[in-house]
Structures are given as C-alpha cells and as structure tokens.
C-alpha cells in the first residue's frame, strides 16, 4: 500500500473554518486514498467536515496529513497545495 | 462550550415542515430578528445567503450549519431547527438536510469562532445525539436534548 505524509502550516487567517473544511473534504473525496489529518492529539478523516472542524486548526497550527492508497501521493500534493493557497481565501 | 450557552430556550424548533432551503433560512431569519432587535429579518437573511453563495453549509449526514457574520452583536446567537423531511441543500454528500444549526457570528474573533465550530461539530458528530434531535417531538423536547447534552 502506497503511503505519503507531510506536515503543513495553516496560513489563512480564519484557519480550518466551515468553508475551508468543506473545500478540503471535497478535495479529499476525489482521491482513491484513505486520508487522515492530525493536529496535536486529535485526528480526523479527510472527507468528514464535522471531524475536520473538531480539529480546531487555527492560523499558525501544524497539520499532519497522512494518505494511504493508490492515490496517496497526488492526494498529499493536492491537499498541501490547497493549504498553501490558503484554501483560496484572500488572507 | 455548552450548546445551551448559544441557543436560547425559545430558539429550538422541532419537526417544522419547510420544503426549500430558502424558506427555511427565511424562517430562521425571522425568528432571529425577534431576538436581535437591532437587526431586521431581511438583513439577517442576507448574511446567511451571502455565506451560502460562497459554498453550501450543508456539511453532510443531513446536517447544515448556515451562518453569517453581522455587526453589532457581542456573542454568537444560534437557532436549532429540525425539519420533518429532508430539504435539498446542495450538501457536500448531496444528502437532503433535516438538521439546521444556524448561527449569527460577531465580526472578527476567528479563534473564538473556530472553538465554537469545534464544539458544535463534536456534538453533531454523535450519531445517537442526531437521532434524538430528529425524533424530538416538540420545541421543548428539542431544547431539553440540548440542555442534557451539556
């Protein structure tokens, strides 16, 4: 099983709020991979908005993203880009 | 955070019967305006619709968290509505929505907003709790579930 993981810094001002979490979950659902996000002692499946909101990832937090499955690498790359692009938000 | 700290006793409405997202949001806006004298229903509805235009707040599993930022309120004000049947909400999983937890949020304070969202998500992620919400037969029963959950 292909695995890929990396840690990303939450850069947008609002953090992983409802809209950002929804965009991330929609992206995660596109890949054939099991995606799990970790922050501090909490973890969330990438395709669940509710679980992502429970991470309470604010600006400046480090989010570890683990992908497992055939699409692990492209999924990790896409999620990393989304976070780096501040979830397409202005600030 | 306790849900009862953001939802007043008369802000839970059980088993209502709306057949569209727009009508449900209009109703919630009217109810909110009765509690927020500085804001009229039209202004509140605008805040909800502005947010929905950016992407649906239907977050899956039959749940929506419509919200909007409005100036002039100090704390989060929320309304919980359960609908008798599912409403098309363009939700992330395309499932119709029958639990709406609507929030009006003060301007700014992102950290506090995230904290509230996390607390709400924690409650709504509990399948058994959602089942109980769906089965609440009247407004008071729905409120009691909120109060007990805390």
From TrEMBL, chain A:
This protein's GO cellular component annotations are: cytoplasm
Q: Where is each HPr domain found?
A: 3-90
- Offer one example of a GO biological process linked to this entry: phosphoenolpyruvate-dependent sugar phosphotransferase system
- Compartment list: Cytoplasm
Is the Cytoplasm keyword given for this protein? yes
Q: What domain of life?
A: Bacteria
- Its name, as the record gives it, is HPr family phosphocarrier protein
From TrEMBL, chain B:
- CDD domains given for it? PTS_IIA_fru
What domain of life does the UniProt record list for this protein's source? Bacteria
Biological process annotations from GO: phosphoenolpyruvate-dependent sugar phosphotransferase system
**One GO MF term, please?**
protein-N(PI)-phosphohistidine-sugar phosphotransferase activity
Which residue intervals define the domain PTS EIIA type-2 in the entry? 5-149
UniProt xrefs under Pfam families: PTS_EIIA_2
Protein name (database record): PTS IIA-like nitrogen-regulatory protein PtsN
């Amino acid at each position: 099983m292909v695995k890929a993981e990396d840690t990303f810094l939450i850069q947008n001002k609002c953090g992983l709020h409802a809209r950002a979490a929804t965009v991330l979950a929609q992206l995660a659902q596109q890949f054939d991979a099991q995606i799990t996000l970790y922050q501090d002692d909490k973890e969330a499946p990438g395709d669940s908005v509710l679980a992502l909101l429970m991470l309470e990832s604010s600006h400046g937090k480090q989010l570890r993203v683990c992908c497992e499955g055939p699409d692990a690498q492209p999924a990790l790359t896409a999620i990393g880009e989304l976070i780096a692009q501040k979830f397409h938000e202005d600030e | 955070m306790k849900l009862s700290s953001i939802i007043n006793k008369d802000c839970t409405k059980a088993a209502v019967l709306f057949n569209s997202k727009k009508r449900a949001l209009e109703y919630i806006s009217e109810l909110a305006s009765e509690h927020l004298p500085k804001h009229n229903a039209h202004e509140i509805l605008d805040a909800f619709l502005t947010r929905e235009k950016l992407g649906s707040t239907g977050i899956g599993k039959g749940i929506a968290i419509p919200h909007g930022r409005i100036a002039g309120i100090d704390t989060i004000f929320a309304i919980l509505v359960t609908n008798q049947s599912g409403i098309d909400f363009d939700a992330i999983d395309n499932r119709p929505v029958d639990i709406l937890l609507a929030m009006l949020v003060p301007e700014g304070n992102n950290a506090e907003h995230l904290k509230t969202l996390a607390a709400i998500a924690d409650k709504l992620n509990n399948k058994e709790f959602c089942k109980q919400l769906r089965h609440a037969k009247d407004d008071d029963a729905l409120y009691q579930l909120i109060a007990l959950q805390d």
